[in-house]
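ligand=adenosine-5'-triphosphate
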Amino acid sequence: VQKIGVLTSGGDAPGMNAAVRAVVRAALSKNIEVFGVYDGYLGLYNNKIKQLKRHDVSDMINRGGTFLGSARFPEFKEESIRAKAIENLKEHEIEALVVIGGDGSYMGAKKLTEMGYPCIGLPGTIDNDIAGTDYTIGFHTALNTVLDAIDRLRDTCSSHNRISIVEIMGRYCGDLTMMASIGGGAEFTVIPEKEFNQDDLIQSISADVKSGKKHAIIAITEHTTKVNKLAKKIEAETGLETRATILGHTQRGGAPVAFDRILASQMGAFAVELLLQGEGGRCVGVQSNKLVHHDIIDAIENMPRPFKEDIYNLTRILA
Ligand code: ATP
């Protein structure tokens, strides 16, 4: 392999820059040229491809977001669009592509691989919702951001005898919510993996308030329920002021924490190693503290993500 490409796709995540930097620097150390594809699959289709030298990734290790840009480009599901993308890569004599993104981005990488173009996937998303890895790049940074928000809400909640609902990202994965709940000491945890019974939650909070509880934090994953409506119902039932805070995109920004920088650096260098060994169509993960790689098609189609039942139970035990 003499030339490889790298792109970031889907929702941005802190640590993506560190991953791109690692791909570039690890490849250059093996005399492989690297090309950056700007704006994800959209830029791949529009041929926004530029060679990256060592200094193009200087001062990137600590920066949030992705300097390569990212985009949603649903048209990439069409084979003719992907064929044009492959044509662009071949025009630059790029032989393989490293895709950093979430499960949607992995689907794109899988389809390119199926069309005979080798891709390596790196898990870059704050949601921690990708098969074949214990942690994704960006998850721990987002977790710290959420914890910081919960800490601040706790200060004001306890001063004002208020109930606080915190809506946390994660799409359909409750990892960010559960971990933040443990770290932030939330009283109630609502996640997509467990059936949500609104009446049970309200009854439980009411009982707590009747027995003297003056404030509480409820951590809820996005898409689970309408948090502002829920706040009104809880307030009506308990008589305690209740407010919902939707953390939104603040969770996606910020400088990556040490864990994400190191994970991204390890995974980026590992991706280059795999390409040198002639591997294509793989996705990289970390499992039980070891770097691993899986067939990208198998990971998407067959690999279940085990639910962290022990973590969920702990949120209840400690509440
Ligand atoms: P996150 O979950 O963090 O937002 P993601 O990678 O899952 O990241 P998506 O918007 O789902 O984000 O996917 C990113 C891009 O991947 C899409 O805009 C599209 O270009 C491509 N993609 C998604 N699904 C497919 C598919 N089935 N086939 C081909 N390409 C796809």
